Amino acid sequence: MEAYRQETILAAVALYMLFCVATGIWAMRRTSNSSDFFIAGRGLGPIVVSLALFSSTLSGFGFVGGPGLVYSIGGSSFWMITISTAGYALGFFMVAKRIRMIAGVRNCISLPDIVAVRYGSDIVRMLVAITIVLGVMGYLATQILAMAVVMQAILSGTTMFANIGLVACVAISSAVLIFYCVTGGIIASVYTDVVQGGIMMAAGILILLTAMSVFDGGMTEATSVILRDDSEAIMPWGSAGIMASLGWFFVFGLGVAGQPHLVTKMMMNRKISDNRHIFPMSVLGYVLAALLWVSIGVIMRATVIEGIIPPLTAPDDAASVFLSLFTSPLLAGVVFAGLFAAIMSTSDAFLNIGTAAIIHDIPKAIRGKAIAAELLWARIVTVLLAVVAALFALYSYYADATLVALLGAFGWATFAASLFPVVALGLNWKGATVPGAVAAIVSALLINFGVQLTGIALPYGISGGLLSFVVSLVLFLGVSSITSPPKLDHDIQRVMDI
Fold first, then answer.
1. What is the percent of the chain where pLDDT is above 90?
2. Do 59 and 143 form a contact (C-beta atoms < 8 A)?
3. Interatomic CA distance for residues 398 and 386, integer angstroms
4. What integer best gives the mean pLDDT of the chain?
5. Rounded to an integer, what distance in angstroms lies between the CA atom of residue 2 and that of residue 451?
6. What pLDDT band is residue 130 in, cutting at 50, 70 and 90?
7. Whether the Cβ atoms of residue 295 and residue 289 lie closer than 8 Å to each other
8. What confidence category does residue 293 fall into, taking pLDDT thresholds of 50, 70 and 90?
9. How far is CA 152 from the centre of its chain?
C-alpha cells in the first residue's frame, strides 16, 4: 500500500467530496424554508448537536493552523486549546438555556434575532449582524485557505497534478463547498458533523500514538529536543511570551460564549434538557481531537531541529507533511478526509450565519421585516459570500503571508470582544442596556480591525484581541451602569428570571 500512498490519500478525499455532494442533495429535500436552512428547524438530537459544536471549534483552524502554531511559537498556542474546555462550560452555563428558550418563544432563527428581542433594539441587531459579516470573512477565509493548502499538498504528490497551484486548489475546494452549502444549508453541515466528529476523535488518538513512535523516547524525547534548542518554546508561555498567552487565555476562555457559529447551534437542539448531555460530549470530543494539534506540532518541530526532515516551507504545512511522512497511507487518507470534513461543515456554519446576517437580520433592522423569498436569496448570497471569502483568503496568503491559525485567531477575537458582553452577559444581567451594547460592539470592532489593518505593535506583546476584549467589557459594564435598561417584554422577563 505504501507504493500507492498519494493515490490512497486522494481516493479517501475524493470519496469524502462525493459524500458531501450526496449529503447536500439529501439535505436539500429536507430544506423547505429559511428556518430549515439556518437552524435545522430546531429539531436536532444531543449527539448531532454535540458533535457539531466541538468540530466547529477546531476545523481547519485546529487541524492545519494549530500544528503550524506549535511548530512556530511552541507552547504559547496550548493556551488556546486548554482554556477552551473551560470556555465550553461557561458558554453552556451562561448562554445555552436562555438562548434556546428565547428562540422557541419568539421563533428566532439567528443570533441577531435573539439580541434584538433581548434589548428591544434594531440598532443592536444591526451591529451584531455587521460584526458577524466582518468576523466571518476572517474565519471563512481561514477554512478555505486551510482546505486549499491541504489539497495542494495532496495533489502535488501525484504525477498528474504535480505543479498545481494554490489558486487552482482554492477554486476546486470552493466549488465543492458552494454546492454543499447552497443545496443543504445547515442541515447538511450538522449531519456531516456526525461522521466528521467520529473521525476527528479517532484521528486525535491515532495521531498521538503515531507521533509517540517517531522518536524512541516518544513525546518526552521530542520535547527534550525542543528544550535544548529553544528553552522558551516548550515552557508554559512559549515563544510568544506571557502577554500573548494570557491574551489567548481570556479571548479563548471567555470568548467561546461569544462565537456566533457555536451559540447558534445551541438554538438547534430539540429539547432544552438535552444540554446536560451535549456539554460533556462536546468537551470530550474537543479534547480528543485537540491531541492532533499538540502532537503534530511538537513532533514536526523536533524532527526539523534534529535534521530528520528539512525545515518546512511554511508552518501551516506541518500537518500535511507529518501525515505524508510518518503515518500509514490508510491513516493519512482517513485523517485528510476528516480534515476536509471538519473544514467543510465549519465553512458551511460560517456561510450560514453570514448569509443570515445579510439577508435576514440587516433587512429586518432597516425595514422592520424580512425580505421576500428568503430561502432563494439565502442560496444566492451564500455563493457570493463564499467567492469573496476565497478572494480574501488568497489576498491574506500572498499579501502578508498570514498563518491559518492567526487568521482564525483574528476572527475568533473579533467575535469574542464584540459579542461576549452583549450575548453572554446580556442574557444574564437585566441591567444591560442598549447604549452599553452599542459601546461594546463599536469599540471592539474599531480596536480589533484598527490594530490588524494598521499593523500597530502594542506594548508588552499585548494583542489587539486582548485589548479590544478588555475595553469592550469595561465599556459594556460601565455604560450599562449609568444608563437606563430597556423595558423587557413579559415573556422575555420570565426567561431572564429562570
1. 18
2. yes
3. 18
4. 82
5. 48
6. very high
7. no
8. confident
9. 22
417, 50, 349, 270: CA torsion to nearest 10? -110
What separation in angstroms does the CA of 290 have from each of 46, 184, 259, 347?
A: 21, 28, 18, 19
Q: Give one word for 23, left, alpha or beta, with left for phi > 0 and alpha for psi -120 to 50.
A: alpha
Q: How many C-beta neighbours within 10 Å does residue 29 have?
A: 10
CATH class of 2-405: mainly alpha
Matching residue, cell 459579542: 419
Predicted model pTM: 0.81
Contact at 8 Å (CB) between 336 and 8? no
Model confidence at 405: pLDDT above 70: no
- Distance from C-alpha of 245 to C-alpha of 238, rounded to nearest angstrom: 8
Residue reference for cell 447558534 = 264
What percent of the chain is modeled with pLDDT above 70?
A: 91
How far apart, in whole angstroms, are the C-alpha atoms of residue 452 and residue 323? 33
204-246 tens-digit pLDDT = 899 999 999 999 999 999 999 998 998 888 887 877 777 777 7
